[in-house]
Fold these 2 entries.
Entry 1:
Amino acid sequence: MGGEHADGEQVEDEHGQGVDSTLFRGVMGRFATGVAIVTTVSDDGADHAMTVNAFTSVSLDPPLVMFCAERTGRFHDVVLATGRWAVSVLPEDMRDASQWFATRGRLLDGQLRGWAHTRGPATGVPILSRAVAAVECRTHAVHDGGDHTIVVGEVVGLDVPDPDGRR
């Protein structure tokens, strides 16, 4: 499939077909997805978080889920190094959280301050208290996904922190 380089240049695939990245983003944006926050804790104890909309279940046996992390994002290297992470599925009224954790260049120190959270019992990573669902994972596999890395996790814990929250 064709695409563009980071500098905006359109690229052709092996069949001479090109895909405009702006149009591709717009077309894919028409598919309604949930929004979730993936969190981890670095070896030095610092919390890290990132908004994702590419999150899905992969397998029931064993229980596996996956998300995609942009290779150039600072979350990418930390989550690969730690090998443990959690996904907090947001209710529809937490748009401010999804925007905050998607903000590039935000300060890392205290980035969860102001967002009620607990530590997952299986991983010790933050889980947002208002999440409608939470999944704790240990990295099972990592795959190339172009400018993203596909991170597959084995589910080691589940919770419904806010069972009354609207999805």
Note: The radius of gyration is 17 Å.
Entry 2:
Amino acid sequence: MDNLSYVAQSAFPLVWIAVPAAGAYLRTRHARSPQEALETWQRWWAIGAFGCGSLWMTVAFLGAPDTMATAIGFERTPFMFEIAFANLGMALLGFRAASASARERVTIGVGGAMFLWGAVAGHLYQWFANGDHAPGNTGGVLATDILIPAVMIILAVRSRRLAATPRPAEAVAA
């Protein structure tokens, strides 16, 4: 595999971080309040990063299992079917998180973290124990697997704290 192809394949998962972040940033430039901006960020992250990113993995593992096996540096196994449906469950949770309460978003983020951070441990093990440097095992996938649930949790915790903070009287009257 040539270097450009390797870099492109390795970096592709970062789309699921970059697009929601850019969309949320552009949408919140003129937000009327921190709460409005935070809610927008949470929705973009839930739908774009968590939902669409997981749905993409579902489609990729079901629709192109041989390509995905090559991308992650493994032989094709029945386990990949299970990964597809685990990602489908996470996609549904991500889409649900778009209209969920902050408490539900924390729970959804923690649930996703259990799967994705476990996957990070597996990727790192394969990298160091077996020298698996396939683009789907190292690089962008590590960043997305760590950051997608972490950001979901951080945003939801921030939202809970912001909701619990009393607002000054002049802000309420405005």
Note: The chain has a mean pLDDT of 93.
